[in-house]
Design goal:
With 209 residues, this protein is α/β, with parallel strands linked by helices. It contains ten helices and five strands, in the order βαβαβαβαβαααααα.
Length: 209
Amino acid sequence: MIRVLFADDHEMVRIGVTSYLSAQSDIEVVAEADDGGRAVELALKLKPDIILMDLVMKEMDGIEATRLIMEKWPEAKIIIVTSFLDDEKVYPALEAGATSYMLKTSKAEEIAKAIRATFEGQTVLEPEVTGKIMNRMRSPERALHEDLTDREREILLLLAQGKTNQEIADQLFISLKTVKVHVSNLLSKLEVQDRTQAVIYAFKNHLVE
């Protein structure tokens, strides 16, 4: 049996997909989560063979959840199942460690096939995602900050204003933990060691005035 954890904040989506998967002779949905934080907790506790991960969820999104899971359990196999194909979602999700990338418009049987293929060590990508990757490989070298998400750029601006993590959390109405994850991500993407270096990079590259 392929043991699956399904994380999605839409109950009806979980019910529909779980119902189909549970009818398969070789797939078992061992747990469900409605937010990223819960997905991380269940993934590390249950160690499922496959994790189906939505991207946009409350409290913690799927990209952050994927990154945290991969940091603590590098062997995890995560399939993104989302409605989004924009660069802000695709690249960060794959960079975070997702193995495969599917759309919610995919039929349940296609998701089941992706589960089996990913379990066997393959990577399953939507054709549009494959095209994006190919175009990116052909494009000229990108500046480091071009990989920042809008939220990371927003937080970088607040760092340049001298805001603390707690002040950023209060201003953006997100948790302190989420702010820390975003700060860690942008430091990694900018290839700097600390907040001060990140702010210096931002000024040198005219990202802030």
